Amino acid sequence: MQSFEDFAGQSAHIAQLHSDFASRAFVHAYLFAGPKGTGKKSVARLCAMAALCRGEGKRPCGVCGPCRRVLAGTHPDVHTVEPEKGKQLIGVDVLRGVIEEVSVRAFEDGVKALIFPEAERMTAQSQNCLLKTLEEPPEDTVFFLITDQPAALLPTIVSRCRTVRFHPLDLPQAAARLTALGLAPEEARRRARMAEGCVGQALAIDEAAMALREQLTRDVFSVRRPADVLAAVNPYKDAKEQKTQILDVLECAVRDIMMAQAGRMTLEDAGYAPQAEAYARAVPLSGGLRLSAAVTRARQMVASNVSFAAAFESILLNLTEEYTQWPW
Ligand SMILES: [Zn+2]
């Protein structure tokens, strides 16, 4: 079972939250803000568990009935508020339904928790409905609004919540945490890098994404002359579904490469092909900036319905020009 201590590095307020919830001295609404994968949802669940726990000693105990039900996701007083299946946004009907339920239901363990894992998905109407509820909150109910986009929430909602900021871990801390969760040290370092210290994201990285990062940087930074371009584009030319992911990976790679060119970090353990490291050593930052601009232009091309193959080709042609000046 996860504990509050596991998240101590993610926010300055973890210990405070722990003691507030274990002693049931919490406020009625929290805004957990921070990048994806920084523990916001896990901490919200721990808070609910601490408040509901019937253990005698340290709370949450993890073994009493309420704790077990929260862990299993079956506690009737812990509600996760999400869009209906197949929908992107949380409609006002969904919200009204849950609020009605917590207002009338006789509660089992004295506290009801509403967790909004992506609070920014509430429609304007839903936010207004929630605002009314927060103005006169039902008794013994706690709202956890979780988001990586706090600006998407009404300022009047934000002002009624206690804001707790969550942060990524620094890379050695993130790698240590991933190792503690059972990853091999090298894998942990690579994933910590790829997810920029967001442990939850690091755990969610799949093998295919890792492989794409290596393969794509190998293919891209192996291009030296215009004659190489077509062969390099070929494996990706039909990547319609994947095109956003490919551009994301490239953008992330170019950003890391520029950091390496600027001497701010190394590309070791970052999951890139050796060709990318060679490029970063040979080409100065000005080249990285031009490459970055080429990736941005390619994104715009794709957005305006130019074929992905043509957009990708334009990035590679930029590289061939660079190669004539700074062979790597
Ligand atoms: Zn318990």
Mean pLDDT: 93
Shape: elongated
Question: What is the architecture of the largest domain at the second tier of CATH?
Answer: 3-Layer(aba) Sandwich
Given helix and strand content, the structural type is: alpha/beta
- The CATH class of the largest domain is identified as Alpha Beta
Termini separation: 49 Å
> What is the C-alpha radius of gyration, as a whole number of Å?
24 Å
Low-confidence parts, pLDDT < 50 over ≥5 residues? none
- Report the CATH topology name of the largest domain: Rossmann fold
Number of strands: 5
Q: Give me the strand/helix succession.
A: HEHHEHEHEHEHHHHHHHHH
> Roughly what percent helix?
40-55%
Number of helices: 15
Number of structurally distinct domains:
3
Spatial arrangement of strands, main beta sheet: 2-3-4-1-5
Account of the protein in words:
By secondary structure, the chain is α/β, with parallel strands linked by helices. The chain folds into 3 domains: 4-165, 3-Layer(aba) Sandwich (Rossmann fold), CATH 3.40.50.300; 170-205; 207-325, Up-down Bundle (Zinc Finger, Delta Prime, domain 3). Helix content is 53%, strand content 7%. Helix 2 packs antiparallel against helix 3 (65-72), helix 7 packs across helix 8 and helix 10 (207-221) packs across helix 12. The longest helix is centred in the C-terminal third of the chain and has 19 residues, at 243-261. The relative contact order is 0.10. The model has no long low-confidence stretch (mean pLDDT 93). The structure holds zinc ion. Zinc ion binds at residues 53-55, 60-61, 64, 66-67.
